[in-house]
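Morning!

This is the sequence you dropped in the shared folder:
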Amino acid sequence: MENIRISVLVVNLNTLNYTKECIEDLLTQDIRFNLTIINQNSDEVGTEEYLDVLFKNHINGNLGSNLHVLTIRNSGYNKPLNKIWNDFVTENDTEFICLLNNDVRISPNFLSSAIQVLDNEPIVGFVNHVTNNKEYQHWYNKLEYEIIQQPFRQGWDPIFRRECYSDIPENLILYFGDDYIYSKLYYSGYKGAYVLNSPMIHLCSATTPNKGRFNTGDSDRSLYMSMTDVYHHLSFDEKFSKLTPEFFKILHNDRISIINDIIEKNNFKSYLEIGVRNTFECFDLINCEIKDSVDPGFESEINNVKYTLTSDEFFKQLNLGNLDKDFDYKWDIIFIDGLHLSYQVDLDIRNSLNHLSKNGIIVVHDCNPPTLHHAREDYSNHDTPAKGIWNGTVWKTFFKMRCTEPNLDMCVVDCDWGVGLIKKGSQKICEVNNPYFEYSIFDKNRVNSLNLIKLNQYQEWLINPFY
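The structure's back. Tokens below.
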């Protein structure tokens, strides 16, 4: 049985002329594919007739040999696009998925070039094609692409690994579905890539009547050549600055919810985040009166934290009285998500304990790596089943302190890669015999090693006496 590797979705929204051109381009593709066309209750004259003829031609073998399965259906009036995407992915079990605008022009190797990149680069979770760019006006067969190291999103028209897809939450605002898909891929450790040898034209979001930057297809084409890169390549930061905080609460629900819940229940006033990277990922979503952030900026294009220092240098300068706070300043809650190596996590926790208020809590991310690959020491090694996901050796520090620090109270909430909680108090010393920090021993004894608790149990841990 032939292995069809990709399924394509096109949604028609009262824009039949665009859809016809898009389908024409798809029928020139140089590989086999499945195609689903959703007619979004279009009342445009000629739509039903066109789709009927298209389907009959496919049945009669008149559409070429590379269109394997053609599905055409009406979605019903105003069916949410996020729901259409979720249903489409559920119904198609091919390796790769393409969510395609209907107002695009694509080259014959549009699908095959993307699949080549995904085959060549296991770290790449999705592929975009360079779009509306004057520097790329011709397609050719020699594969050229670039992996983008920093997060970005282009919007629609991605081709991605189906196994990486996460259903878009029903309560997510309508036009944030594509942002959600991109972000979950990044959060899972994947990167994005641009295909350069198979450029495409996107006719400026003209997918509904009187909507879009230009009025007619002819003016779209004439102005296409003068469009700027800036408009068509919004950076990740630029796009996400427009999103509501609720979007990220859906995306990173566990640790953010835990931190905010701790702040609210304990009436905490001051928050410190060590290892921020991008403030929109966590820091901006924390609800606290006084918020401070520390990050040297090694992983972000724009480092907009308060203290642009390594955590070691930050605490050194704080202790010397060289910052804008007293040398003995204390925070109510400190979130540690910096370098995921045990020696650094140990330093960060001990420095944080010296600057933690009497009833304060330290939160540590990435304490519960699910496999040895996630717990590797070398972040840059992406040739493992964990790909780009890296919990590092945080677990070793947490386990060590569970074995050696009777004056602390520690647990790890079993969610979001392991959310560690530390407060001053007392704990029974962990008796797991693992003096050389072997992962296999840890894996067999992780509940006792970490004092691992369920998400719905941490609130009980919070109300226990501190002393």
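Headline: DSSP finds 16 helices and 16 strands in the chain.

More detail when I'm at my desk.
O.
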